[in-house]
Design goal:
alpha/beta; single chain; 4-stranded mixed beta sheet; 14 helices; about 425 residues; binds ligand EPZ
Amino acid sequence: MDSIIVRGNGPLKGQIPIAGAKNACLTLMPATLLSEEPLTLTNAPRLSDIKTMSQLLSSLGAEVTSLQDGKVLAMSSHDINNHVADYDIVRKMRASNLVLGPMLARLGHAVVSLPGGCAIGARPMDLHIFGLEKLGAEIELKDGYLHAKAPNGLKGAVIELSFASVGATENILMAATLAKGTTVIKNAAREPEIVDLATCLRAMGAQIEGDGTSDITVQGVDRLHGATHPVVTDRIELGTFMLAPAFCGGEVELLGGRMDLVESFVAKLHEAGIDVEETDKGLKVARKNGRVKAVDVTTEPFPGFPTDLQAQFMAMMCTAEGTSVLEEKIFENRFMHAPELVRMGANIEVHGGTATVHGVETLKGAPVMATDLRASVSLILAGLAAEGETVVSRVYHLDRGYERVEEKLSNVGAHIERVSE
Ligand code: EPZ
């Protein structure tokens, strides 16, 4: 099992290229199941989660070919021959549940394993099921699998979500493209990954309006055709690397960064005393002098502060001037990085969904353990600012969502290396 060793090495300088978004690619890939014609994704990220989704689609009979060093995914599900998404694949990655809507819409039936528990929260699928049943599907849970069928096809409906769930919106949106009549998803998720999915589906011939707002309208069509679609920039990878110079000083340009993807996050960086400006290649972030200031944060659905940047922001607040309060409103168990940061000398109190961080002068390097994807990278960032050596173990979590972290950070001057045990 790999670990990553980080030694604080002072200010960073240079450029970091930002990849395509994991959370967009993981919903774009199942969209291939909606059509017999090929779907090609460009600017795809090279991550273990993408490999897992390729494995799942292949198990259903789709062809997934990785080209150009993994940056292009050529997919075709002309010959789907299996409608069962197996537990052995689904348990590795919850986003596997995004094949449910497309398979139901295209084939009229689907059997998808429930993903089971997750480190950051219970993460049920009740809203996915609620929405698909509104479209006329019959769904039954049997032996840990969702058995869904719509023998006469799906029918458009008005679906009001009690919470703007990203995954439920994506499953319903994909299913609605082939449903008879009009579907309106009310209180839909507004994340950029949803807009990217809708843009791709429109390129395949779907009729969709309102993506990016809380009300999405879909006019069902009989069939979808093939398309080629560039995966949107990964705003979470972008936000993560924007923090690197905030931790240890310096100036870094994030190539491909877009301000519209990270506005609420940038507002908090400004409050903390971090400079962020747009360049013709992306975004430039600099921390010139002094400690960052303590800032309070509450995670919310987009366009609010993203929960996927909470761990990284908490790590930065560990050495801020003053006390900050972080409220996690999306997931019920997403502070597992806190005790690891405390091992590095941070002063953090956690009570339920609220963490209070009392800023300290410096962190000290220590052996720490990654517990989930975003927690793992928060420990690496903390290591950049710490005195001495930090060893982050269980970095398989990291590889699920970040490509070549050590390379990207060492190119801007960080002392970081991966070691295999
Ligand atoms: C997506 O997860 C992302 N994953 C997550 O990123 C991200 O944290 C999350 O959206 C929120 O932004 C992917 O896109 C693959 P939700 P998803 O449905 O779709 C509850 C990362 O680090 N809920 O919006 O699962 C749920 O339990 C990952 O890259 C229900 O109660 O998120 C959670 O508390 C982690 N019932 C909240 O809503 C449902 O049917 C948000 O979940 C669905 C969700």
